[in-house]
Design goal:
It contains 18 helices and no strands. The protein is an all-alpha fold. α2 packs across α5. The N terminus is likely disordered.
């Protein structure tokens, strides 16, 4: 990837040891420590002092390799993009879309197993790319778009506009599920990873819906209201900015400016920025839970209730009523607050698992692993915010059907194209 390579070259241009094994080993150690810090605190929250402490160096020594904190963060993101590129190249050696996706998932599962065994370092999550400074931001986003296109090519390079749109949805769901694995895979023993991989690939391959089920959702009437006038608009604007820039990238001043209010007005609504993110999460989780509750009260099969839940939440994500707050904002929160939000997320996932289990018993949902499938659904609805621009190029109903089909009927079922 030419663009990200420019970042690394610029940040190391003055290093006299450049190219030596000793230099490279230290640089790699610093990048690994930076990736851990980014994953725990976000790129904005990462400090030279913390990275230096993790590798047993002083801050001055780190600046010898990377002049600025932004250079270090960009290099860590560049490394992630390079690793993803290598994984996709390996996957693309397979002969069919199905075997390519299976290979990509397998490569990632084996990587996560090595990380858990202490044999490999995690790479930096990419949630803070949009919060980077220019020109690094543009270069990194170009690299990310290349990864997206290469993932989309797992289904082939040729096709109609509709086929390309559907492949885009599939690529996004595969990538987001890959990133989301780290949020829930640690609940399993390492020797269970192959089974989890098989169960997730089963959902990717054949979907959730039982034999003969159609996509005919009814949008649920969500009436989520904040008790304080104007608060919902405030939280909505904050959610959009936090999704785009990350928790630390979205400053109070920026949020206030988005709403055309003073900084003091922010503190009329909330006492602190941590409270803001907590309120945004509560709003988002309440909307998801409301959809689940409303669906459970509807008549029809458990599949029909689940498809209506999925469709309603995607409609929210693609509309002016959205978005829901992405879980990527969690990395900037204090541990206590973060754990509270993760607990709520897990309860919502368990509710999805319960809906799936009921459908399996009824026969309207395939005999899948409901715990694994519920996490795939969490990744689906959580990440849909990033596809708003994609969704805006087609009727909303079509965008929802295309995106939902990835897990409803699997990543290789083209029946939605003829719907």
């Amino acid at each position: 990837m030419n663009a990200p390579e420019t970042i690394a070259q610029e940040s190391e241009a003055s290093a006299p040891e450049k190219g030596t094994k000793r230099f490279q080993a230290k640089r790699d150690a610093i990048l690994s420590a930076a990736a851990d810090a980014i994953n725990e605190q976000s790129a904005k929250g990462m400090t030279f002092a913390d990275v230096a402490r993790r590798v047993g160096l002083n801050t001055t020594s780190v600046t010898y390799y990377f002049k600025r904190k932004e250079d270090l963060a960009a290099a860590a993101f560049e490394q992630t993009l390079e690793r993803l590129d290598e994984m996709l190249d390996q996957a693309l050696t397979e002969p069919t879309p199905e075997t390519r996706v299976a290979r990509f998932l397998n490569i990632n599962m084996e990587r996560l197993a090595r990380i858990q065994r202490g044999e490999e370092q995690a790479f930096a999550i990419l949630s803070d790319l949009r919060a980077m400074e220019e020109p690094m931001k543009s270069q990194l986003l170009t690299g990310w778009r290349n990864i997206f296109r290469k993932t989309r090519s797992l289904w082939g390079a040729e096709g109609t506009r509709a086929e390309t749109d559907l492949r885009g949805a599939r690529a996004h769901v595969v990538l987001e599920n890959t990133f989301w694995l780290t949020a829930w895979l640690t609940r399993y023993e390492i020797d269970e990873y192959p089974r989890v991989e098989q169960r997730l690939m089963d959902v990717f391959r054949h979907g959730i819906a039982g034999p003969g089920q159609k996509w005919q959702p009814e949008l649920l009437d969500l009436e989520h209201e904040e008790p304080e006038l104007g608060r919902d608009a405030f939280l909505l604007a904050a959610t959009r900015l936090i999704n785009e820039l990350g928790y630390r990238g979205a400053s109070v001043q920026r949020i206030a400016s988005e709403l055309n209010v003073t900084k003091g007005s922010f503190y009329h609504h909330l006492d602190a920025k941590d409270e803001l993110v907590t309120a945004c999460y509560k709003r988002s989780f309440d909307i998801i839970a409301d959809a689940q509750r409303l669906a459970e009260g509807h008549r029809g099969s458990h599949w029909e209730r689940l498809e209506s839940t999925i469709a309603t939440l995607l409609d929210v994500q693609f509309s002016e009523r959205g978005p829901l707050l992405r879980t990527t904002a969690l990395s900037g929160l204090p541990p206590r607050v973060r754990n509270t939000m993760i607990d709520r997320s897990n309860r919502i996932a368990r509710r999805f698992a319960g809906m799936l289990s009921d459908g399996i018993a009824e026969g309207s949902i395939r005999p899948i692993d409901p715990l694994v499938a519920s996490q795939a659904l969490m990744a689906l609805q959580n990440a849909a915010f990033d596809m708003r621009k994609w969704a805006s190029t087609m009727p909303r109903e079509k965008a929802v059907a295309f995106y939902a089909s990835t897990l409803a009927f699997g990543l290789f079922d083209d029946s939605v194209l003829g719907a």
